[in-house]
Specification:
single chain; 266 residues; mainly alpha; 10 helices; 2 strands
């Protein structure tokens, strides 16, 4: 085991800490760790990320079942279209994207580059949203009734997002549930975890037919992440979440810029 592997497994633990602190955001660390520390292809990295994020979200879901915070009908309406789009994206879109999309003289635009640049864009978007003031329950007053039609459309979009970059999409799911399903923030966070669980694990399972999975490595990474979740949850009881979110968002923006630089200068 070299120093990059050691850093990578520490990163697995840190991924769990982030999930424990914020209830999401694990893929934002997991994908770069898989790509740049463990030197995995982005397609495999996003697949592994879906397994880690899905399993971690499942742990959170089990906790929330006892708290009775999950809006099951809303979760079903959102999850069904998301499952269709994530499966179609992983099963048919990703395998059929050519390794080299375009060539300009000596510069090639590759599948790896496009996936990682898109991933960087999502990181920046989620960072900006994270630094904004948290959504309050008063937002629900802007709508007079639940809008399941828009939830279905957003569910389809989140499924594509998960399929492309291995992200759970919690930063999109939670506001959508608050605004269009008119549920509380606590219910939205709990409901988003069950959506992310099914969305991520179905996306991962669709890869099993064309990817060779290193189960020992993936399970070890996931166990370390789950341990980190418990540590992050414990830490969250003693620190100000707003300060942590702001600093983490700034870190994510820096990381996104580094990824963009690495991909464009590779």
């Amino acid at each position: 085991m070299n120093y990059l592997d050691i850093l990578g497994f520490f990163g697995a633990f840190l991924t769990g800490v982030i999930i424990g602190l914020f209830g999401g955001g694990g893929s934002i660390l997991a994908v770069p760790i898989f790509v740049y520390l463990f030197k995995l292809n982005p397609v495999i990295a996003t697949s592994y990320s879906m397994f880690v994020v899905g399993t971690s979200a499942a742990v959170g879901t089990l906790i929330n079942i006892n708290k009775k915070l999950i809006a099951y009908k809303t979760a079903l309406v959102f999850t069904l279209p998301a499952l269709v789009s994530v499966y179609m994206t992983r099963r048919f879109l990703i395998p059929n994207i050519p390794d080299i999309l375009f060539s300009f003289e000596n510069f090639d635009i590759t599948k790896k580059m496009v996936l990682m640049l898109f991933f960087s864009f999502v990181i920046i978007l989620s960072s900006v949203l994270m630094m904004k003031k948290p959504i309050t329950e008063s937002i629900t007053k802007t709508t007079s009734q639940k809008n399941y039609g828009l939830l279905i459309v957003i569910g389809l979009a989140v499924g594509v997002l998960t399929g492309l970059i291995g992200a759970g999409g919690g930063f999109i799911i939670v506001p959508a549930l608050v605004v269009f399903a008119r549920i509380t923030i606590k219910q939205a966070v709990a409901t988003s975890l069950i959506i992310i669980t099914f969305n991520s694990l179905i996306g991962f399972s669709s890869d099993l037919s064309f990817l060779k999975i290193e189960w020992d490595f993936l399970i070890l990474f996931t166990i370390l992440s789950i341990l980190g979740i418990f540590v992050g949850t414990y830490i969250s009881n003693y620190v100000r979440e707003s300060t942590l979110k702001t600093n983490f968002a700034r870190f994510m923006i820096v990381m996104a810029v580094v990824i963009i630089f690495k991909e464009l200068t590779a």
